Structures are given as structure tokens and as C-alpha cells.
Structure prediction request, 239 residues.
Amino acid sequence: MTHITLVEDDVRLANLIQQFLESNNFSVTVLNSGENAPQLIIDSQPDLVILDVMLPKMDGFTICKRLRKSFDKPIIFLTAKDSDFDHVLGLEIGADDYIIKPVVPHVLLAHINVVLRRSSHQSSNNHQDIIVGELSILKKSRRVIYQQQAVDLTSHEFELLWLLAKNADEPLNRDYIHKQMIGREYDGLDRSVDVRISRLRKKLGDDPNNPYKIITVWGKGYLFNTNAWQQPLTEQETP
Prediction:
């Protein structure tokens, strides 16, 4: 049975979500405070975490950032704040999806199923490593090494780099990347792909003003440039 941890301080809402999900064959653990949530989640290793943004003791963003150091399972944010800042920040620090309150149960269930399917597909992908010049992308251990240095990537950033590198020297458009990474069609407004590309470039020492490792091909999308990984990092480019 799929195990979900729900971190939500609204006890009534948490109980309603728990009852609904358990009626749909999920096992649900509820935490009503952010205090100790990261360690409890890491210890129990649920298959998915549903995380409220506004929590007592420790907010959802802080919890997510702490979890992503050692927890690679899906995280869905619940947020009452319908703003680009909150959405972008949540995705940037490692969330897989977000849902705006008030929560519609069947919409929540649909999001959960999409995220779980995507996570399962990513886990079952072949584990052949990708090595390009001085860059090694190690699928099974989900590690990235560049010039013999480990590059600290979130789960999303790793999957994005893997997707780009698997299609090296071929531009991938935003719609395709969005579908592969987020699991739904691009709506023309969601900036999550752009945010992740920007973060990935920064961590890989790409020039933000004139990127050459992950190139923007105007009108076509983003391209992983195999030639760039033969070049040594300069002092300014060190991640």
C-alpha cells in the first residue's frame, strides 16, 4: 500500500484528506506541525509527502529544503497563496507539484496519481550512466560529477539534466520538457521549466548571460551542448 505523509496544521482539513485518501487505498500519516517533520519523514520514508506551506514551528519551504538533502520521493505543496513567487519558489527548492487551497479531493487524487506515476517511471528507467567529457551523470546513484567534483542537484534538477543529456545536441522545446518533468501539458504561463534550467545552469557553472553548456535555441527550446563539457571550469564558473 502506498504510504503518504500529510503535514497540515488544519486538523479538520487533515482529517478530511486522510479519510478520503484512505478510502482510495492509501496509507496516511498525519503531522499537524512542522516541528520535527523533516526527521520523521526521513525516518519513515513515505512514498509521497503532501506539505502545507504555512505551518507552526517550521514552514513548508524550510521542511522541503531540508528533506531534499536526503529524501528523493515526491513532494506536493498545499498552498493558499496563489502567486508566482510561491509556486516558483516551491518548485525551485524541490517540490514536484503544488495544489491551491481549498482542496478539491478528486483533483488532489489526480495530482497524486500523476506524480506517483512519473516517479515510478523515472525510477524504472534504464540505469546506464551518461559520460560526456568531464561530466558524469550516474543514473543509479543519482549523482553528478564534473571535473572530479560532486555537483549537488535536487531530484528535479537531476531528472532535467538526464533528460537533456539523453537528447544531447538536440533542442527540446519547453512543451516537451514540461510534459516529461511536470506530467501535464504546458499552459503557457508556468515558469517551472525556466526556473529549473536557470538553477541547473548555475550549479553546472554555465554563463547565465551567455550560456554554452545548456543553450537556448530561440524558437526551438533548450539544447545540451556536448562540446562544452570538454572545457575546464574557470574560477568564475565554479558551481
User: Anything to note?
Assistant: The first strand starts at residue 3 and ends at 7. The two ends are 40 Å apart (CA to CA). The longest helix spans residues 105-124. The chain has a mean pLDDT of 84.
